Automatic annotation (TrEMBL):
<feature type="domain" description="Nucleotidyl transferase">
    <location>
        <begin position="7"/>
        <end position="274"/>
    </location>
</feature>
<dbReference type="InterPro" id="IPR029044">
    <property type="entry name" value="Nucleotide-diphossugar_trans"/>
</dbReference>
<keyword id="KW-0548">Nucleotidyltransferase</keyword>
<dbReference type="InterPro" id="IPR005771">
    <property type="entry name" value="GalU_uridylyltTrfase_bac/arc"/>
</dbReference>
<protein>
    <recommendedName>
        <fullName>UTP--glucose-1-phosphate uridylyltransferase</fullName>
        <ecNumber>2.7.7.9</ecNumber>
    </recommendedName>
</protein>
<dbReference type="InterPro" id="IPR005835">
    <property type="entry name" value="NTP_transferase_dom"/>
</dbReference>
<keyword id="KW-0808">Transferase</keyword>
<comment type="similarity">
    <text>Belongs to the UDPGP type 2 family.</text>
</comment>
<dbReference type="Pfam" id="PF00483">
    <property type="entry name" value="NTP_transferase"/>
</dbReference>
<dbReference type="GO" id="GO:0003983">
    <property type="term" value="F:UTP:glucose-1-phosphate uridylyltransferase activity"/>
</dbReference>
<dbReference type="GO" id="GO:0006011">
    <property type="term" value="P:UDP-alpha-D-glucose metabolic process"/>
</dbReference>
Amino acid sequence: MTSRITKAVIPAAGLGTRFLPATKAMPKEMLPVVDKPAIQYVVEEAVAAGLDDVLMIIGRNKNALANHFDRVTELEQTLESKGDAGKLERVKESSALADVHFVRQGDPKGLGHAVLRARKHVGDQSFAVLLGDDLIDSRDVLLTRMLEEHEKRDATVIALLEVDPEQIHLYGAAAVEPTDDPDVVRVTGLVEKPAREVAPSNYAVIGRYVLKPEVFDILEHTEPGKGGEIQLTDALMEMAEDVEGTGGVYGVVFRGRRYDTGDKLDYIKAVVQIAADRDDLGPDLREWLGGFVARGADSR
C-alpha cells in the first residue's frame, strides 16, 4: 500500500510567447479566466484532490505568481475598513489555499527537466504534476480518480483524452491496451506529437500526471528529444515498459469538461465557457451571446 500523496508540482517556467505582448511583463499563468488567474484554478484542483503541498517550477520574471499566493496586508486592511467582506474573502482565498513553494528551473530544457527540478522537494514519494494550460472543470472528477488508480495499481497514471485524429499531432499520443475498467487503459507506448499517419491512437496525453518517484532516476539519463528538450513523454515511455519494476503506466480516460488555455482562441473559448456556466454571469452572458451570434456577419 502506497502512502497518501500530498505533493503537487506545477511547471510554470514557460515564456508564454503565444500571448505576447500581454505576457511581456506578466506571466501567462496570471492571465485572468473571468476573475481568477488561470494558475489559481490549477491549485484549487490540486487542493480539492487532497494535495496541500504545492511546488511551482518557475523562471525569471515570475514574481507575480509568488505575490498572488502571498498575503497582501494593506489590501486586506483597506477592504476590511470598507466593510467589503465579499472581496476580502476572495482576496484571502489564494493565500490560504495551500502551502505553496517555488523553485527556479534555470535553463529552459523542457518539461522533463522542470519535473526533475522538483526532486529535492518531493523526495522518494509519489506526486502529481499539473500543467497550467489544461483547466479541468471542478464539477468533473479527474485527479482524484487518478490518485485512486495509482494507489490501487502502484503505478504511474496519466490522463488521456480522445481527440479528433486530425488534432493528435498537437499532443503526446498513447498506445494502449484495455483493462477490466472501460475508463482505465494500460499504456504500452507514447509518441510526442506524432503525425496522424503514425500516431498509435487518438488517445492524447493531457496535462495531469501521478508519477512514481522512479521517474527522477529515469529523467536523469533521458537525452533531449523533440525540440531539443528533455521530454517527460520519453521518460514515461521507459516507465511504460516497466523498467526496473516501476509498475508500468496506466491512463485514466477523461470524458468531462476541459478548458484549453494554450493558445489565444482556446483561451477565449475557456473564458466564455466558464463565465457562461456561472450563476452570477451566465444568464446575461448567454442572452448577449445569443444576440451576438444571431447578428453574425452583420455585426462586423
